[in-house]
Write a structure and sequence with these properties.
212 residues; alpha+beta; Alpha-Beta Plaits; 2 domains; five-stranded antiparallel β-sheet
Length: 212
């Protein structure tokens, strides 16, 4: 080995070292400035994806539960609608009178008198005392009584505490007891619940109907 070759090798070594150092620095900068932030972003995205997946699973479970309960909800909605009509938030005496008059016409009895002119505060619901007098064939009077408990004929909830029939002095065919003419006094109660709608007024128009 001569002196000239030794000098050249000495000159080459610093270049190699510098090159290696530059590569190392660039690799470090690449990791610090790009790789590390991108890795952090990737971790954030993965966490968000996991969260969204969990939310999707929860929503799917809720959807399946709602689908299973939908038929029951439709059924219960019908009951709630019926109950809302049966026990309204107001006394609604005029509407009640109209329903009772329509029932009398449907059962072919004469509604001689009807009184629903008072309300009584109670627990759990408020009440409207009812007093009615009807006349007609015995079977029709019984049909009227049955109609008071038929939601297809009377939407309001009514309970009967007294039913006093009495045959009329004349009228009807004595050979056909079902056609014999009767009068009947009926004592009952209708219901309403202001708690259903606290904003509803408790005032009502009293109605007393008497045959002329």
């Amino acid at each position: 080995m001569n002196l000239q070759s030794m000098n050249l090798n000495a000159l080459k070594r610093p270049k190699i070292l510098i090159t290696v150092a530059v590569v190392v620095v660039l690799a470090a900068l690449w990791w610090i400035l790009w790789m590390s932030p991108e890795a952090s972003k990737l971790n954030t995205i993965n966490a968000q994806q996991t969260q969204l997946t969990n939310q999707l699973n929860t929503l799917n479970q809720t959807l399946h539960l709602d689908e299973a309960q939908a038929p029951k909800i439709s059924e219960y909605a019908g009951y709630l609608s019926m109950f809302a009509a049966a026990v309204p938030p107001l006394p609604e005496a005029p509407q009640l009178t109209t329903e009772l008059a329509n029932l009398a016409n449907a059962t072919n009895v004469h509604l001689v008198s009807l009184s629903d002119d008072s309300t009584v505060a109670g627990t759990p619901v408020d009440t409207i005392p009812l007093s009615m007098d009807i006349q007609g064939p015995r079977q029709d009077c019984i049909a009227f009584l049955q109609g008071l408990y038929n939601p297809k004929m009377i939407t309001r909830l009514i309970t009967v505490s007294g039913f006093t029939p009495a045959p009329l002095a004349s009228g009807g065919d004595i050979l056909k007891p079902s056609n014999a003419q009767f009068s009947a006094s009926i004592i009952g109660t209708a219901y309403y619940d202001p708690e259903i709608d606290p904003s509803a007024s408790t005032s009502t128009t009293a109605t007393t109907t008497t045959a002329g």
